Amino acid sequence: MIVDLMAESWEDISQMNAEKLVVFLGIAPIEEHGRHLPIGVDIYETNHWIHKAAERLDSALPDYCFAILPTIPLGFADMGQFPGNIHVSRRLIFDVVYETTSAIARWDVHNIIIISAHADPLHAIAVEQACEKTNKEHGDICLAPMGAIFNLGPEDTSAAEPSELPAMQRNFPDDFHAGWIETSCMLSILPQYVKSDYMKRPNIVLQGREMTDGQKVAAAIAGEGHIGFPKLATASLGAELNNDMAEKIKTAVCCFVKREDFARYMKHPLHDILSSVPL
After folding, report:
1. How far apart are CA 20 and CA 128, in angstroms?
2. CATH number of the domain that 134 lies in?
3. What's the pLDDT tens digit per position in 165-192?
């Protein structure tokens, strides 16, 4: 069963089987995504992935209830001074996620899943650190799998063959922000919000290490706001990407709910390095 928790009363929630209740919570920023995409991209994607994963989970684990809370519109989104961009501190992300998951834990919920379509490592790791604190206090009840999921390789795609996706991921990997990946996802989810001139947007290429140089990033995206290859986007690629993400989230949640091989989804690959950076 899938429920919208906002539509339930406290009495309804109290009567749910806490051991079989899985609560989904999204957290993603309001953030500029170039000239061609809306500032709500990460929130739209987060909501879509949660609902699609919940549908798959409802089939895979029919004895469970998958309850969805609204996505929190906050994120570590340091993309400069573009109008519409709302960047908040990692400390705020940590505090909001910790206090929210701690409150949910007091309902005696055993499974809290935090999802974000925002792939910034510092955002993902702040969320993971909050979950770590909640788990230290309440046992392993909280999972934030996106840092691990975003870093699975092209070979880990769940897309059915034949598929364009693995080749695109190999050939155009440095598609960091509002490029072919996010533009494709939005063409599949909400095409009416994608401006038709996305195919005219220039390729803006930065290598992975260059992304740590704030001045270089700011110079590269000036006047545009994206990093990658938006003109390569298609709705069919977006459908594959969204289905792939829903399947990966479903797999991670199944592992966590069953408490089987879930440790691989607990941390971003850079967690142990970047968690030492002060919040």
Report:
1. 23
2. 3.40.50.10310
3. 888 988 998 999 999 999 999 999 999 9
204 within domain boundaries: yes
| pLDDT digit string, tens, across residues 2-25 | 999 999 999 999 999 999 999 999
Domain count across the chain? 1
* pTM attached to this predicted model: 0.95
Distance CA 117, CA 77 (A): 12
